[in-house]
C-alpha cells in the first residue's frame, strides 16, 4: 500500500514524461469533440497537469448542435494500450499512464463512497443521473469523470480582490479551508497534497462580501488521498518514513525530514497556503521565499529558516504584517507541537486563524483617529447652546473647561521639557561618539574578508581602521567611494553573483579602545531578496560577527579573519 502511494505521488509530483507528452499533444486538443454518450461530448481544453487534463462539457441542444455546459467539466486521462505480461508469470510493473488511470478511478470511488456527504458543500458535486451527463466512464482512448465546474482558485486575482473588500474575509476563508480538512480527517483520510491549486471557488452567487469566498471554497483533486489508520490494529499507522510526497513548496518540514504524512502535516501545509494568500494580498506578484529554490532539499532548508524566525521575509511580506505575522507564527508554532499520531485541536487552530485580516487595520485606525480629531476640533469651534448663568449645568461646564485648560498647559510644558531633554541627550551622544573615534584613531587594526565559495571564490577584501566608517556590499553599487561630513562609505562590488541584490548588506568595523586586536564587524541586511546568513542562520536585525564567522549573501560565502 505504501509503495503504491509513493509511486503515485512520485508520478504526480514530477510531470510524468510519457503521459504528459501524450496529453499535451496538439496542445491537449486531441480529445476535443470525443463523444461520452449520444448527448454529451468532450469540449475545449481549459487546464492540464501531470495526471490528466480538464475540458469543458458540451451538451446537445434541441437543434442537435452542441453547446457548452456551464455547470460541469470533464476530467480525463488517457487509457494506455493493454500489454500482456511476461511468459514467466511475473507480475508486470505498471506504466506511468496506467498508474494515472488508476488514480482517476481511485478519485471517483472516493466521490461515490467515502466523500459522498461532502459533495456540493466541501468538494465538487457530481451529475445527478437521468438525462444529465454520466458521472464516470471509459472509452478506448481515455478514462473520465464529470465534476461540478469551479470558478477560480484561491490565489487568482478574482479571489484576492474579493478578499480585499472585507476585513474579515480572509479569516473566514482560512477557517473554512481548515474545516474541510477536518471533515476529511474525521473519515480517517489524509489529503497529502495541500496547495493553492487544490482549493477552488464555486460559482460566486452570494453578494455578501465576507462570506462569498468562504461559503464557496471547495477542496479538489483527491488523487493522493490516503488512509492514516492501520486497519489490522484499529489504530494510527506507524511512522515508517518514506520519500517526499506532494508539492515540495507546500510540504511540511516533517515530510522534508523523511517522516510519513499525518494530520499535522496537512495542517502545516495549509499554513503555507494561507501564507501565500497573505503575501498576494500585499503584492499581486509575491512569492514564498523558497519557491525559486532549485531542489527539494534547498526548499526544505530555506523554509525551515524562514518559518522558525518570526522576523523573516516570509512573515514580513504578509499583508498587514504587524498583525497577521504574529497570528501565523502562532499557528505554525501550534502545528509544530502536534505529535505524529496526535489528534489536532482544530478549535484552537480556528480561533487563531479567525483573527486574520485582509484590510489593513492601521489605515482604518488612522481614519477613525482623524475623525475623532475633527470631532474635537469642531466641538471647540462651535460653542454649545448657552445656558443662564448660575444654573448647575453652566457651573459644571465652566469647572470642566477650567480643568481642561490647566491640563492642556501642563501637557504643553511637558512636551517642551521632553524636547529639551532629547536635544541635550543627542548632543551628549554626539560628543561621546567623537571622543570614541579619537580614542580609536590611536590604533591601526585591520580586518580581512576571504570569499570561500561562489562566483568570486578566492577574492579578498581588506579593511583598515579609519579607512572608512561603513562598507556597502552589493551586486551593482552606484559608486565606488562616497564621502560625507561625518563618515566615509566604501562599496564592495560582487557583480558575478546574480542572486545578490544591488545593495544587499552593510558592514561596520568595530575596534576596542583598549586592545587593537579586539576587532569585530556589525552586519545588517538592506531589504535584500534572499537575506543574510551568519553561520547558516538568517538574521533579522544587525548582528555582530567576529573572526572565524561565516557570512552568506546569495550564493557567495565569505570568512571574517583578523588582518
From TrEMBL:
Q: Which residue windows does the record flag with biased composition (Basic residues)?
A: 369-384
PROSITE patterns hit by this protein: FHA_DOMAIN (PS50006), PROTEIN_KINASE_DOM (PS50011)
UniProt xrefs under InterPro entries: CK1_Ser-Thr_kinase (IPR050235), FHA_dom (IPR000253), Kinase-like_dom_sf (IPR011009), Prot_kinase_dom (IPR000719), SMAD_FHA_dom_sf (IPR008984)
Domain Protein kinase spans what residues?
40-354
GO MF term set: ATP binding; protein kinase activity
Query: Per its UniProt record, what Pfam families does this chain match?
Result: FHA, Pkinase
Q: Where is the FHA domain?
A: 471-539
Annotated signal peptide:
none
Q: Which parts of the sequence are annotated with region: Disordered?
A: 362-403
Identification of the protein by name: Casein kinase I
Amino acid at each position: 500500500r505504501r509503495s503504491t502511494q509513493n509511486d503515485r505521488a512520485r508520478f504526480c509530483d514530477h510531470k510524468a514524461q510519457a503521459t504528459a507528452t501524450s496529453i499535451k499533444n496538439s496542445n491537449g486538443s486531441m480529445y476535443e469533440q470525443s463523444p461520452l454518450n449520444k448527448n454529451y461530448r468532450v469540449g475545449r481544453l481549459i487546464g492540464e497537469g501531470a495526471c490528466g487534463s480538464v475540458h469543458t462539457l458540451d451538451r446537445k441542444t434541441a437543434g442537435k448542435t452542441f453547446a457548452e455546459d456551464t455547470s460541469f467539466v470533464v476530467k480525463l486521462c488517457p487509457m494506455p494500450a493493454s500489454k500482456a505480461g511476461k511468459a514467466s508469470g511475473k507480475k508486470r510493473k505498471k506504466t506511468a499512464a496506467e498508474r494515472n488511470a488508476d488514480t482517476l478511478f481511485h478519485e471517483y470511488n472516493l466521490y461515490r463512497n467515502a466523500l459522498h456527504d461532502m459533495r456540493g458543500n466541501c468538494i465538487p458535486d457530481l451529475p445527478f443521473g437521468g438525462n444529465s451527463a454520466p458521472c464516470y466512464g471509459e472509452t478506448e482512448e481515455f478514462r473520465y469523470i464529470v465534476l461540478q465546474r469551479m470558478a477560480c482558485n484561491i490565489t487568482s486575482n478574482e479571489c484576492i480582490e474579493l478578499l480585499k473588500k472585507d476585513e474579515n474575509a480572509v479569516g473566514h476563508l482560512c477557517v473554512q479551508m481548515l474545516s474541510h480538512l477536518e471533515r476529511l480527517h474525521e473519515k480517517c483520510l489524509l489529503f497529502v497534497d495541500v496547495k493553492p491549486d487544490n482549493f477552488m471557488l464555486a460559482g460566486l452567487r452570494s453578494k455578501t462580501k465576507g462570506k462569498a469566498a468562504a461559503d464557496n471554497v471547495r477542496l479538489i483533486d483527491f488523487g493522493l488521498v490516503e488512509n492514516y489508520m492501520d486497519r489490522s490494529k484499529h489504530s494510527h499507522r506507524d511512522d515508517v518514513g518514506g520519500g517526499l510526497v506532494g508539492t515540495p513548496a507546500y510540504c511540511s518540514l516533517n515530510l522534508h525530514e523523511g517522516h510519513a504524512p499525518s494530520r499535522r502535516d496537512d495542517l502545516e501545509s495549509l499554513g503555507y497556503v494561507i501564507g501565500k494568500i497573505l503575501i498576494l494580498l500585499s503584492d499581486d506578484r509575491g512569492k514564498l521565499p523558497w519557491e525559486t529554490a532549485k531542489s527539494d532539499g534547498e526548499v526544505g532548508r530555506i523554509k525551515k529558516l524562514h518559518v522558525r524566525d518570526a522576523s523573516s521575509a516570509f512573515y514580513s511580506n504578509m499583508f498587514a504584517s504587524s498583525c497577521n505575522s504574529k497570528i501565523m507564527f502562532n499557528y505554525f508554532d501550534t502545528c509544530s507541537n502536534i505529535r505524529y499520531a496526535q489528534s489536532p485541536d482544530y478549535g484552537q487552530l480556528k480561533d487563531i486563524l479567525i483573527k486574520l485580516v485582509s484590510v489593513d487595520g492601521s489605515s482604518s485606525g488612522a481614519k477613525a483617529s482623524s475623525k475623532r480629531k475633527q470631532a474635537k476640533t469642531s466641538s471647540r469651534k462651535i460653542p454649545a447652546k448657552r445656558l443662564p448663568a448660575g444654573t448647575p449645568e453652566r457651573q459644571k461646564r465652566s469647572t470642566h473647561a477650567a480643568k481642561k485648560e490647566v491640563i492642556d498647559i501642563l501637557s504643553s510644558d511637558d512636551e517642551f521639557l521632553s524636547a529639551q531633554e532629547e536635544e541635550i541627550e543627542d548632543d551628549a551622544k554626539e560628543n561621546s561618539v567623537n571622543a570614541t573615534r579619537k580614542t580609536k584613531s590611536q590604533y591601526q587594526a585591520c580586518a580581512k574578508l576571504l570569499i570561500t565559495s561562489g562566483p568570486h571564490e578566492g577574492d579578498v577584501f581588506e579593511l583598515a581602521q579609519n579607512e572608512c566608517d561603513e562598507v556597502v556590499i552589493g551586486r551593482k553599487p552606484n559608486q565606488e567611494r562616497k564621502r560625507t561630513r561625518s563618515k566615509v562609505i566604501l562599496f564592495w562590488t560582487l557583480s558575478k553573483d546574480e542572486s545578490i541584490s544591488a545593495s544587499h548588506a552593510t558592514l561596520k568595523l568595530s575596534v576596542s579602545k583598549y586592545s587593537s586586536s579586539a576587532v569585530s564587524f556589525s552586519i545588517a541586511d538592506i531589504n535584500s531578496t534572499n537575506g543574510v546568513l551568519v553561520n547558516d542562520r538568517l538574521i533579522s536585525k544587525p548582528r555582530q560577527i567576529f573572526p572565524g564567522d561565516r557570512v552568506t549573501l546569495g550564493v557567495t560565502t565569505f570568512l571574517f579573519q583578523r588582518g
